[in-house]
Amino acid sequence: MRKNFEWKVKRSNKTTLHLVCIIDDCTWKLRAVRREEGTYFQVRSFVNEHTCPLEEIHRRHRQASAVTIAEVVAPRLQQADGRLMRPKDIIADMKTMYGIQIMYSKAHDALQYALSLTYGTHEESFQLLPSFAYVLEQQNPGTITDLQCADDGKFLYFFMSLGSSIRGFRRCMRPVIAVDGTHLKGRFGGTMFVATAQDGNEQVYPIAFGYGDSENNLSWEWFLECLRGALGHIDDLVFISDRHASIEAGISKVFPYATHTICCWHFGENMKKRFHRKDVADIMDNAARSYCEIQYDRHMEELRRLHKGAYDYAIDAGPHKWSRVHCPQRRYRLMTTNVAECINSCLKFARQLPLMTLAEFIRNMLQKWFHDRHTNARSMRHRLTDAAHLVILKRVEKCGYMTVNAVDWNIFSVRHKGKQWTVDLARKTCTCNKFQMDFLPCSHALAAARYMTPSIYCFIVPKRESNCVHCCRERNVDFTSLCADYYKRETLIDAYSVPIMPVGHPSSWVVPSDITSRVVLNPRAKRQSGRPMEGRHVSREDNHTVV
Predict the structure, then answer these.
(1) Which of 115, 191, 259, 299 could be bridged to 329 by S-S, CB 3.0 to 4.6 A?
(2) How many CB atoms within 10 Å of residue 24?
(3) Same domain, 142 and 282
(4) 3 state SS of 140
(5) Average pLDDT for the chain
(6) Which structural domain, as residue segments, surrounds residue 179?
(7) How far is the C-alpha of 299 from the C-alpha of 289, rounded, in Å?
(8) What is the per-residue pLDDT for 544?
(9) pLDDT band at 530 (very low <50, low <70, confident <90, very high)
(10) What's the average model confidence in pLDDT over 505-510?
């Protein structure tokens, strides 16, 4: 292959193999005969010299079949940066290593065959799902899985929520869940459903994954039913998603006590495409992120004067859906589905793998995340997480310029640049609304905390290990006491304290016969022909355009 010489089979039967060069006048040949005492062939004659004319040598090698190329690239499918090899990478490697130019279609076929050599076929993957789910639950207590098949055994749905994630969310996370769906790029297509939260260090915290045929009412309702079964009842629960009608219908049916909100980024992108104006989307985003109604009303009035149609569109969508200040429950600092989009991005190349391999890829990814984040949390120097500490640090820089006057033991008036706010440190509230909405002290609350007299300090904040006289001499409230537990280092350590255990190779699994005997066949739906879509599926809302 490196020298661009090709051969063809002149004779091949049970006893003889005769190969010659594809150029008739060339002297290269190989003849082998089967030995009588075994199945081996013995080379009887071999002329390893080509006498082909130079003009007959070309760069497309007939021996460079998709199967041969797959065997060459299979050991290098996983790249150094964690992604999987792509057809264009195979084309480049074959040209660099062997000087052969292959077509994209052959590189694509070689990649699919290499994937099956390394990770197994899609058919084997579906059949292994029951055993994988059993071993996953045994190795990780508290894990919830669900496998649904049709009456004829064809695959319908698969759900997976690791016990460590369930425990961490219930104990240590803010009750805000971002849900999203993304298409799979394997042979049979389908959709992956994702439910994620965000930890106190502003890191993605995956909760559950599901796999189905497409984003429709039945599939979303099934996924949300499984999620409710895994998490149980959560007080003040908030969901964030795009404006997919099936998600809204599923949440209202399965979680009637929860609040459903929409991603303000997706909402802004829809406005931008609908009205062909970026400025209306920016104003709407400012209104959505406002903490108090005065700011919200000011931005909405600006939007109304700028574009009446965009204003009506935002009002019709429901401010309680996209606005922070009108949301019935706290959204904290989560206004977008970015945490779910990050998961989809991490699995961009893994979504073409067989289903069981994809589930194992996710488990392995979360295993690494839990270990690394637990180690990082234990090494943090502050009582708050690094992300929360940076937020407080920036707000502390502002509070030095503010004027504080005491109103009561716990209530303070804070002035800055002609504006005035009232802070109640006992109730942890401020008229700017940031304190009570984020459960993190705003700059006004931090300014009030610095102003406190020693007697008030001892009344509100529990005494530290050092004597009270020393605390009063500092005349500063411990800012950590004003933050919710979600943002504390100990909570972050607890969230990742239970490791995710591996399941091992399928050959080492010990599974009851009633599980291994369960038949799971390929799903009915297959992926559409052509290259899979790389970006987000455009909804009907995105397609509707008004000039």
Answers:
(1) 259
(2) 7
(3) no
(4) coil
(5) 86
(6) 122-263+336-374+509-524
(7) 10
(8) 36
(9) low
(10) 92
Which tens digits make up the pLDDT trace of 133-161?
Answer: 999 999 999 999 999 999 899 999 999 99
Question: How many domains does the structure of the chain reveal?
Answer: 4
Kindly report the number of other CB atoms within 10 A of residue 332's CB atom.
19
Q: Which of 416, 418, 426 minimizes the C-alpha distance to 449?
A: 426
In whole angstroms, what is the distance from residue 357 CA to residue 122 CA? 9
* Res. 198: pLDDT tops 90: yes
Ordered alpha helix ranges (H), 140-162: none
Count CB neighbours of 152 within 10 A.
8
Distance CA(208)–CA(196), nearest Å, equals 7
Pair 235, 127 in one domain: yes
Is 496 a member of any domain?
Answer: no
Are 453 and 395 part of one and the same domain? yes
SS3 188: coil
- Residue 222 and residue 346 in one domain: yes
Q: Which strands make up the sheet holding 7-12, listed edge to edge?
A: 7-12, 16-21, 29-34, 41-47
% helix, strand, coil for the chain, step of 5? 45, 15, 35
Over residues 53-82, the pLDDT tens digits come to 766 665 556 667 788 888 888 887 766 565
Residues with Cβ within 8 Å of 289's Cβ and at least 6 positions away in sequence, in order, are 264, 324, 335
Looking at this protein, which amino acid is placed at residue 145? T
Based on the fold, state whether residues 207 and 254 are members of the same structural domain.
yes
Residues 6+ apart with CB under 8 A from 417: none
Q: Do 164 and 76 belong to one domain?
A: no
Residues 472 and 513 in one domain: no
Amino acid at 514: D
Contact between residue 169 and residue 370 where contact means Cβ atoms under 8 Å apart: no
- The reply to whether 397 falls in a domain is yes
Q: Please spell the DSSP secondary structure of 334-400, one letter per residue.
A: --SSHHHHHHHHHTTTGGGS-HHHHHHHHHHHHHHHHHHHHHHHHT--SSB-HHHHHHHHHHHHHHT
Residues 346 and 363 in one domain: yes
Alpha-carbon span 489 to 496, nearest angstrom: 11
CB 17 within 8 A of CB 11: yes
Identify the pLDDT of residue 532: 52
pLDDT band of 114, cuts 50, 70, 90: confident
What span, in angstroms and rounded, lies between the C-alpha atoms of 371 and 363?
Answer: 12
Q: 96-100, 203-207, 382-386: which range is least confident on average?
A: 96-100
Q: How many whole angstroms from its chain centre is CA 280?
A: 29
| Average pLDDT of the residues in 199-220 | 94
With tokens 């996924």, the residue in question is 223
pLDDT at residue number 298: 95
- pLDDT over threshold 50, residue 455: no
Structure tokens at 253: 């049916």
